[in-house]
Design brief:
With 151 residues, this protein is of the alpha+beta class. The chain has 3 helices and 5 strands, in the order αβββββαα.
């Protein structure tokens, strides 16, 4: 089975087997009418939530136990896309070494979009680009430190 087939299978498995209602297996449907207050979305994603849900997956290795560099947590399923986050700290890079708040010149952007992405080899082909919108935020100051303080 190819990696693409595996990820589509994983999305289908989470959507149609593990999720049987809000709270089942630590999964919650975000359909705009849930009980998440300002955090509720209406994108029909299914997301893991809770203090320690069992949402680990080994990505890019068949070794058992999974090497720490290949251990990821599933954030949720968005359509047929499974959003993952690495389980370990990749880098201690600062947002920016020159104390600016510009994303285009930030140290962390260079580290993640360069060094880290290159380290994934062919698995980098399975990463999709998305634009994330911050709905309901009224302050026009979108600097990272302001956003972190706000949310």
């Amino acid at each position: 089975m190819s990696t693409t087939q595996s990820l589509v299978y994983l999305a289908d498995y989470i959507n149609n087997t593990l999720y049987t209602g809000d709270g089942s297996n630590g999964l919650y449907l975000h359909d705009g009418s849930g009980s998440y207050g300002t955090y509720e979305t209406d994108d029909n994603s299914i997301r893991y939530a809770g203090s320690n849900p069992n949402n680990y997956v080994c990505f890019g290795s068949d070794v058992s136990p999974c090497p720490s560099d290949n251990l990821y947590r599933i954030i949720g399923v968005f359509g047929n896309n499974v959003k993952l986050i690495i389980n370990t700290t990749y880098s201690t890079a600062a947002w920016s070494s020159d104390n600016s708040n510009e994303w285009t010149t930030s140290t962390i952007r260079t580290t993640l979009n360069g060094t880290f992405l290159s380290s994934l080899g062919s698995y980098a082909n399975y990463i999709e680009n998305y634009t994330y919108y911050l709905e309901g935020y009224s302050n026009s100051d979108l600097r990272p430190n302001v956003m972190y303080d706000e949310h």
